[in-house]
Amino acid sequence: MFDFTALELARIQFAFTVGFHIIFPTITIGLASYLVVLEALWLARRNDVYQKLYHFWSKIFAVNFAMGVVSGIVMAYEFGTNWSGFSKFAGGVTGPLLTYEVLTAFFLEAGFLGVMLFGWNKVGPSLHMFATTMVAVGTLISTTWILASNSWMQTPQGYAIVDGRIVPTDWLAVIFNPSFPYRLVHMTLAAYLSTALFVSASGAFHLLRGNDTPAVRKMFSMALWLLLFVAPLQIVVGDAHGLNTLKHQPAKIAAIEGHWENDPKETSLPLIAFGIPDMQAEETKYSIEIPYLGSLILTHTLRGKIPGLKEFAPEDRPNSTIIFFTFRVMVGLGMAMLLLGAGGLLLRWRGRLFTYRPFLIFSVLMGPAGLIAVLAGWMTTEIGRQPWVVYGIMRTKDAVSGQSVIALSVTLVAFILIYFFVFGIGISFMLKMVARGPDKYGTEKPPQEPGQVRRPARPLSATPDDIDPAPRLEREDV
């Protein structure tokens, strides 16, 4: 297929499936925590606006959660079908970590999800709040185990190689590997930012359509408050994550910066704001440089330097041409998020938050920005790890299964067609629900207090009085 090798097709197929999948857990993580906040505010204030928003976003959460589960199952099979070399070599570490995720997180989410979605009128308010909290905790636990596994592949430790296979020797060292804390916080904040942008875009969309209701105003306002505080925090965490990556994966940082070699005549490192890295010519063409800024960002000094790509063997260099741009997409969108949060604060102070159309249009356009930034960030991380599947230990070419080019081409095309059809319908349905708005969903009765009757004493006493009686059958109709 287009002269790709089996290795390249396997990588493209996994990148496509994981890229599609990551969209859904990102929104799931953020929405689950948002639902906890909404229900807690409703319990504290008994304001029907919070209850209405809870029921509105819980329905969207349910659809998104289902698509995340379905898309995630495929990747588990791909480890065996396309990456059996990796599974054989590193399965002693990644297998248990993914198993812990299922046992501690997925079962927790699945166990309480039914109570959360369908138990509003069947359990007391405390139990329902507990169920919602457990679902949110489950999403965070799931994030923890997945990030522990992936971070170990980036910065492996706590292992030994026995008979050509990795054997864990220290599980605490495996889980709490050097990049894990930074990547866990960075991804969790990214999920919150993505959800805040999704919610704010929904609110702005309805405000632009004239649907100016208390519920719409409340969700728009809450989302912008979250953006205002989390966007700057994400920049700080991202900076710390970058310094950690420079320490453990210097080739990745050099590729991100398009930095090939240090000029002995220069005592500082400029930041290449734009350019086109050329892997063959070993240079970044058409570069636009900002003096000293590279040193300031990467070393927090005005005179610091980092290793250049030429200091690494050609076969050990990540593809700078790709991650140079994906990283800048992520950072650029992060700056736009910061601008959106600050703009919201200014308009809130001026009393025009819900009426200033240019800002509302900007909010709608920023709706998918969080998810695009997440995809760009994961591309930067994963492509920047190449040519290693386990950094410094196992090369990607040694991890692939012995599948034929034809088999991988056919399955890749099948995945693309099926994914766009199935998940296209799911995403379309979810967006239609968002377009309806929270005011289309009636306020449901609150969870009943303990001791209240939750079921009728006689089955037929639950039947509404306005139901027409069944027509009496005449003898000739029998």
Automatic annotation (TrEMBL):
Keyword Transmembrane: yes
A GO molecular function held by the record: heme binding
Spans annotated as Disordered: 440-478
GO cellular component: cytochrome complex; plasma membrane
Domain of life: Bacteria
Compartments (UniProt record): Cell inner membrane; Cell membrane
InterPro entries: Cyt-d_ubiquinol_oxidase_su_1 (IPR002585)
Membrane spanning residue stretches: 20-44, 56-77, 97-120, 127-148, 189-208, 220-237, 322-347, 359-379, 405-431
Chief place of localization: membrane
UniProt feature, compositional bias: Basic and acidic residues: 469-478
Keyword Transmembrane: yes
Membrane topology, record value: Multi-pass membrane protein
Gene Ontology biological-process annotations: aerobic electron transport chain
Keywords: Cell membrane, Electron transport, Heme, Iron, Membrane, Metal-binding, Transmembrane, Transmembrane helix, Transport
Family: Belongs to the cytochrome ubiquinol oxidase subunit 1 family.
Official protein name in the record: Cytochrome ubiquinol oxidase subunit I
Organism annotation: Rhizobium tropici
